[in-house]
Amino acid sequence: MPEFPILDGKRILLVIAGGIAAYKSLELIRRLREQGCHVRCILTAGGARFVTPLTVSALSEDKVYQDLWSLTDESEMGHIRLSRSADLVVVAPATANLLAKMATGLADDLASTALLATDKPVLVAPAMNGVMWDHPATQTNVAVLTGRGVRRIGPNAGALACGETGSGRMAEPGEILAAIVGHFEGLAGSGRGLPLAGRRALVTSGPTIEPIDPVRYITNRSSGRQGHAIARGLAGLGASTILVTGPTAEPDPPGVQVIRIETADQMLAACQASLPVDVAVCAAAVADWRMRKVADHKLKKDQGEMPVLELTENPDILATLAKAGPHRPRLVVGFAAETRRIIEHAQAKLVRKGCDWIVANDVGQGTGTFGGERNTVHVLRAGSQGGPASVEDWPLLSKVSVGERLAVAIADHLSGSAPVRS
Ligand code: C5P
Ligand 1 within 6 A of 336 CB? Predict the structure, then answer.
């Protein structure tokens, strides 16, 4: 179902250059087509090393243009007309090489020629090794292009295909899609920009750790991947996003304000200090209990100090945020990690916590959800006046895609309501 009616009928010329991120451009084509866009693609020689013309053509349902010197192409379309045949030119991935050509006006293949000949707005999604991105040559080229009005989305920080980490990962398809939506909304003069622009979002992620003594603690299993991906998805759609997270190895999502905490008490305090927000998503694996009394020195095993763990309950952050009151977010979303009777338990949790939506996922043995890249979720939305919840089953998706899709669903839900004032 089209989520962004503004994209319906828009013509996108997508230039796919030679980077490993080209595979993500296939997903971008699919999503643009879903929104009713006409997508015409230019594939560079490098790009064709990563994705095949056949795949690009099948997904775009159009011919793929590859050769500046193709007589057939020239007689049908011509590179000048091709460069002007779109409402927006998107370059994804935009390699260091292609950005350099664009900045200097080189035109030695179809892609660079079309980019020089176009009179249409251009959006680039850079993708490259982090050192290449940081290199003054690339930064100068990007500054030149920005000065000429070329729009840019990404790159993001994180693990790169070359095995290094740094800035250079191409923005995710959902983020590029959001930037394209933002471009057309800006043109339409709606002034709204991205669908969550002007909104405030709060996300909890990762585990909490509850000290036993200065060196030991109890905690929950959580990589923070899903929570971080949601924060990233919300920020990608323009929300001013605060991520309150326990210790994780995840990189900070781009454009997100990150508050690091350790204990559940600290997480609650940081969340409350972040209010008011339009939406709160609690994806953290908060420890249910903490020590009634934390030892102020390291307990010594050779001095017979084996502790009896006397526990006390932690505050329920989700339930606290969901309580009625002047600062209750318009939308409160919780998570339910279950191993059995997932929907039934999630239904009960929706009521018990007083939240609006529950994203339920199966974390049973063999699902690979914990610490994994992917997730299968079911989204339960509370029925009106205590009626039964609706359940939407989502397919197996990457956690990043779950984050993007949830952000889109949130944007959809909030559209039409006034944003909170901070
Ligand atoms: O009660 P349970 O831990 O199963 O509920 C899971 C949901 O509640 C998640 O959204 C989690 O982030 C949230 N939660 C919380 N504070 C707690 C316990 C859970 O926010 N103390």
Answer: yes
Relative orientation angle of helices 399-414 and 225-236, to the nearest 10 degrees: 50
Cα(414) to centroid(ligand 1), Å:
23
What is the domain-level CATH number for residue 259? 3.40.50.10300
Buried b or exposed e, range 33-48, using 16+ CB within 10 angstroms: bebebbbbbbbbebbb
pTM: 0.60
**195 in a structural domain:** no
* Cβ proximity of 241 and 235 under 8 Å: yes
Both 161 and 216 in one domain: the answer is: no
Please write down the HEC assignment for all residues of 297-324.
CCCCHHHCCCCCCCEEECCCHHHHHHCC
pLDDT along the chain (422 residues), means of 10: 85 97 97 97 97 97 91 74 91 98 96 94 94 92 82 83 82 91 70 75 98 95 94 90 95 87 96 95 97 92 83 98 95 92 93 96 73 85 82 89 90 84 64
Q: Measured from the CB, is residue 286 less than 6 Å from ligand 1?
A: yes
Write out the residue range of the structural domain in which residue 81 sits.
5-187
How many domains does the chain contain in total?
2
